[in-house]
Amino acid sequence: MELQKGEIVEARFLSRPNRFLGVVALEGEEFQAFIPNPGRMEELMIRGKTVYLRHLPSPKRKTDYDLIAVKHRGILVSIDSRLPNRFVGQLLEKKELPSFSEYCEVKAEPSMFGGRFDFKLYSGSVDSIIEVKSCTLVNSGVASFPDAPTKRGVRHMMHLAEVLQEGIADRACVIFVVQRPDATIFTPNDRTDPEFGKALREAHEEGVEIMVLLTKLENWKLRLLKELEYEL
Q1: At what angle do helices 194-205 and 151-165 cross, to 10 degrees?
Q2: 68 FRET partner, CA 20 to 30 A, in 21, 44, 49, 154?
């Protein structure tokens, strides 16, 4: 089968030898695919599921495919954890996030606290720090993050609070991008990672804003549906 670079193909999921590697069946043959998501995704990574691959051959890669989406209960779930950052960056560039439309400049990946946040927004009077998180887990309409313990996520929440405490920026916000359209509300996943839930609540008490964006994968790009409510 000849494929163009970047072409999307349908396959069948077989197994996940490690968190970044999947084995799929395509046209009667088995192939390996890169999974661009470190989360568990136990409800999605099930043998026999229909998955979608992007063909990206390169001598620098170990596989020729990225596994980018899963068909789950009749809906398409985007699983690429790199996509939400790009998506929010595009919304900011076009000034399509009403809560963050009054600024002059967007800087990606500003360095702070020995690490990086996703965005810093500059304006004449108010500077903002934004951290973006990818959410693929939804149960009975409830979107949750994370789906695996995340020490990095806990640090991000603590550092967002420190941004405000130390006067580094006037606003700090974590944006959860739900990469599927079947959620009606968002909550931290305390069952999987109570430390993250605790850190998120404490950050919120310090003034860190929370935004949850419900999206749908259309033409292999995320489309914003609406902003979701959340419960802490």
Answers
A1: 10
A2: 154
Tell me the fold of 83-228.
Trna Endonuclease; Chain: A, domain 1 (3.40.1350)
Of the candidates 43, 27, 48, 24, which has an alpha carbon nearest to the alpha carbon of residue 35?
A: 24
* Architecture of the domain delimited by 8-78: Beta Barrel (2.40)
Local structure of 95: helix, strand or coil = coil
Each residue's pLDDT tens digit in the chain (232 positions)?
556 768 999 999 999 999 999 999 999 999 999 999 999 999 999 999 999 999 998 988 999 999 999 999 999 999 999 999 999 999 999 999 878 888 888 999 999 888 999 999 998 778 999 999 999 999 999 999 999 999 999 999 999 999 999 999 999 999 999 999 999 999 999 999 999 999 999 999 999 999 999 999 999 999 999 999 999 9
Report the length, in residues, of the chain. Answer: 232
Do 148 and 131 touch, CB atoms closer than 8 A?
no
